[in-house]
Protein backbone atom coordinates (compact mmCIF):
# COMPACT_ATOMS: atom_id res chain seq x y z
CA UNK A 1 0.00 0.00 0.00
CA UNK A 2 2.80 2.44 0.89
CA UNK A 3 4.52 1.73 -2.43
CA UNK A 4 1.35 2.65 -4.31
CA UNK A 5 1.08 5.94 -2.40
CA UNK A 6 4.73 6.76 -3.06
CA UNK A 7 4.35 5.89 -6.75
CA UNK A 8 1.20 8.02 -6.98
CA UNK A 9 2.98 10.93 -5.26
CA UNK A 10 6.01 10.71 -7.54
CA UNK A 11 3.76 10.51 -10.60
CA UNK A 12 1.77 13.55 -9.47
CA UNK A 13 4.97 15.51 -8.75
CA UNK A 14 6.45 14.58 -12.11
CA UNK A 15 3.25 15.60 -13.87
CA UNK A 16 3.25 18.95 -12.08
CA UNK A 17 6.88 19.60 -13.04
CA UNK A 18 6.22 18.79 -16.68
CA UNK A 19 3.30 21.18 -16.82
CA UNK A 20 5.37 24.19 -15.67
CA UNK A 21 6.10 26.68 -18.45
CA UNK A 22 9.60 26.61 -19.85
CA UNK A 23 11.49 29.88 -19.56
CA UNK A 24 12.23 30.53 -23.21
CA UNK A 25 14.37 33.22 -24.75
CA UNK A 26 12.51 36.03 -26.45
CA UNK A 27 12.56 36.16 -30.24
CA UNK A 28 14.78 39.24 -30.05
CA UNK A 29 17.28 37.45 -27.83
CA UNK A 30 17.29 34.41 -30.12
CA UNK A 31 17.91 36.54 -33.21
CA UNK A 32 20.64 38.54 -31.45
CA UNK A 33 22.32 35.40 -30.09
CA UNK A 34 22.22 33.72 -33.47
CA UNK A 35 23.30 36.57 -35.74
CA UNK A 36 24.93 39.37 -33.74
CA UNK A 37 26.79 38.11 -30.69
CA UNK A 38 29.76 36.84 -32.72
CA UNK A 39 30.83 40.42 -33.48
CA UNK A 40 28.97 42.47 -30.88
CA UNK A 41 30.20 41.73 -27.39
CA UNK A 42 28.62 43.44 -24.41
CA UNK A 43 31.27 46.16 -24.67
CA UNK A 44 29.69 47.58 -27.82
CA UNK A 45 26.54 48.41 -25.86
CA UNK A 46 28.12 50.29 -22.99
CA UNK A 47 31.14 51.92 -24.62
CA UNK A 48 31.45 55.68 -24.37
CA UNK A 49 30.98 56.35 -28.09
CA UNK A 50 27.97 54.09 -28.64
CA UNK A 51 25.78 54.97 -31.60
CA UNK A 52 22.46 54.19 -29.91
CA UNK A 53 21.50 57.19 -27.79
CA UNK A 54 17.72 56.74 -27.62
CA UNK A 55 15.02 54.27 -28.62
CA UNK A 56 14.79 55.53 -32.22
CA UNK A 57 18.54 55.42 -32.83
CA UNK A 58 18.72 51.95 -31.25
CA UNK A 59 16.14 50.62 -33.73
CA UNK A 60 17.97 52.39 -36.57
CA UNK A 61 21.26 50.73 -35.59
CA UNK A 62 19.65 47.29 -35.39
CA UNK A 63 18.13 47.88 -38.84
CA UNK A 64 21.48 49.09 -40.19
CA UNK A 65 23.46 46.10 -38.98
CA UNK A 66 20.93 43.51 -40.08
CA UNK A 67 20.95 45.13 -43.53
CA UNK A 68 24.77 45.14 -43.62
CA UNK A 69 24.70 41.42 -42.79
CA UNK A 70 21.93 40.82 -45.38
CA UNK A 71 19.76 39.08 -42.78
CA UNK A 72 16.47 40.20 -44.32
CA UNK A 73 14.73 40.82 -41.00
CA UNK A 74 11.20 42.18 -40.94
CA UNK A 75 10.26 45.36 -39.07
CA UNK A 76 8.93 43.13 -36.28
CA UNK A 77 12.25 41.23 -36.05
CA UNK A 78 14.18 44.50 -35.81
CA UNK A 79 11.77 45.80 -33.16
CA UNK A 80 12.13 42.57 -31.14
CA UNK A 81 15.94 42.72 -31.20
CA UNK A 82 15.87 46.42 -30.29
CA UNK A 83 13.46 45.66 -27.44
CA UNK A 84 15.76 42.89 -26.17
CA UNK A 85 18.82 45.16 -26.33
CA UNK A 86 16.96 47.97 -24.61
CA UNK A 87 15.79 45.68 -21.81
CA UNK A 88 19.23 44.10 -21.43
CA UNK A 89 21.61 47.06 -21.85
CA UNK A 90 20.20 50.49 -22.61
CA UNK A 91 17.00 51.15 -20.65
CA UNK A 92 15.86 53.98 -22.93
CA UNK A 93 12.36 55.29 -22.25
CA UNK A 94 9.82 53.65 -24.53
CA UNK A 95 9.01 55.44 -27.75
CA UNK A 96 5.59 57.01 -28.07
CA UNK A 97 5.28 55.73 -31.66
CA UNK A 98 3.92 52.26 -32.43
CA UNK A 99 6.26 49.26 -32.06
CA UNK A 100 7.85 48.89 -35.56
CA UNK A 101 10.43 51.24 -36.95
CA UNK A 102 8.26 54.32 -37.26
CA UNK A 103 8.63 54.43 -41.03
CA UNK A 104 12.40 54.03 -40.97
CA UNK A 105 12.31 50.70 -42.80
CA UNK A 106 10.08 52.05 -45.54
CA UNK A 107 12.71 54.70 -46.30
CA UNK A 108 15.55 52.21 -46.28
CA UNK A 109 16.57 50.56 -49.52
CA UNK A 110 18.00 47.55 -47.73
CA UNK A 111 21.60 48.44 -48.48
CA UNK A 112 24.18 48.78 -45.77
CA UNK A 113 26.93 51.32 -45.27
CA UNK A 114 29.36 49.20 -47.28
CA UNK A 115 27.38 49.79 -50.47
CA UNK A 116 28.55 53.34 -51.13
CA UNK A 117 26.40 55.19 -48.60
CA UNK A 118 28.03 56.72 -45.60
CA UNK A 119 27.38 55.03 -42.27
CA UNK A 120 24.35 53.08 -43.48
CA UNK A 121 22.00 56.05 -43.59
CA UNK A 122 18.81 55.81 -45.64
CA UNK A 123 19.32 56.51 -49.32
CA UNK A 124 16.36 58.87 -49.42
CA UNK A 125 13.61 60.19 -47.21
CA UNK A 126 9.93 60.52 -47.93
CA UNK A 127 9.53 63.94 -46.28
Looking at the chains present, what oligomeric state does this protein adopt? single chain
Runs in which pLDDT lies below 50 for 5 or more consecutive residues are 105-127
Mean pLDDT: 73
**CATH second-level architecture:** Orthogonal Bundle
Tell me the number of strands.
Answer: 0
Distance between the termini: 80 Å
The tally of structural domains comes to: 1
Backbone shape: elongated
Q: What percent of residues adopt helix (DSSP H or I)?
A: 40-55%
SS summary, helix count: 6
Alpha-carbon Rg, integer = 21 Å
By secondary-structure content and strand pairing, the structural class works out as mainly alpha
CATH C-level class is Mainly Alpha
How is the main sheet built? Answer: none
Q: What string, H for helix and E for strand, traces the elements in order?
A: HHHHHH
CATH topology: Cytochrome Bc1 Complex, Chain D, domain 2
Question: Describe it for me?
Answer:
With 127 residues, the protein is mostly helical. The protein has one domain (26-115): Orthogonal Bundle (Cytochrome Bc1 Complex, Chain D, domain 2), CATH 1.10.760. It has helices at residues 2-18, 27-35, 43-46, 55-68, 75-90, 104-107. α4 packs across α5 (75-90). The radius of gyration is 21 Å and the shape is elongated.
Amino acid sequence: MARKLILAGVTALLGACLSLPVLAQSRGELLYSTHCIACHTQQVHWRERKLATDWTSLRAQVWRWQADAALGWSDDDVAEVARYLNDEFYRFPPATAPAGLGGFASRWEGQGGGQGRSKGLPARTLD
